[in-house]
């Protein structure tokens, strides 16, 4: 995963300052390939951007772990927990953004109150500020 923070100008706060975009990338992409895009997204919006890998893809390949739909859900849940529990970002300050194949886990996340594992979420994904879909499947 990568967490990009835009440059801050205390004299002129950006419109998105204080918000974090949880970005789920598209098919045939990984964090390394879309790093220039998420850097530009952070600069253009003034938002922090957290992007992650799906379990079984790219750098998240593990022995005996094949890419699958369930792994995509586990991955976005882990990103949500990291943002809202580890970093303490309030749910209402998170905008979930899915592109292509990333729209599946993004829609699934914001439609739930908790995590797919059954573990309660400290902050409900339904409380996210918004959902952006680019080239949805």
Order of helices and strands: EEHEHEHE
Number of helices: 3
Strand order across the biggest sheet? 1-3-2-4-5
Q: So what's the overall shape?
A: globular
List the uncertain runs: none
Straight-line distance between termini = 23 Å
Structural class: alpha/beta
Helix-strand blueprint:
Blueprint: E1 2-4, E2 20-24, H1 31-45, E3 48-51, H2 69-86, E4 94-99, H3 103-110, E5 130-134
Parallel strand pairs: 2-3, 2-4, 4-5
Antiparallel strand pairs: 1-3
Descriptive notes:
The structure is a single chain. This protein has 137 residues and is an alpha/beta fold. Helix content is 30%, strand content 17%. The longest helix is centred in the middle third of the chain and has 18 residues, at 69-86. It is globular and about 50 Å long. The mean pLDDT is 89. It contains three helices and five strands.
């Amino acid at each position: 995963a990568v967490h990009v923070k835009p440059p801050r100008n205390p004299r002129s706060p950006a419109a998105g300052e204080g918000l974090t975009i949880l970005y789920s990338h598209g098919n045939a992409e990984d964090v390394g390939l879309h790093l220039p895009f998420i850097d530009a997204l952070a600069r253009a919006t003034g938002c922090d951007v957290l992007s992650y890998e799906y379990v079984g893809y790219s750098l998240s390949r593990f022995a005996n772990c094949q890419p699958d739909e369930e792994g995509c859900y586990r991955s976005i849940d882990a990103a949500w927990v990291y943002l809202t529990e580890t970093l303490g970002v309030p749910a209402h300050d998170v905008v979930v953004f899915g592109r292509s194949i990333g729209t599946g886990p993004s829609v699934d996340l914001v439609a739930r109150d908790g995590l797919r594992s059954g573990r309660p979420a400290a902050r409900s994904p339904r409380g996210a500020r918004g959902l952006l879909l680019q080239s949805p499947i």
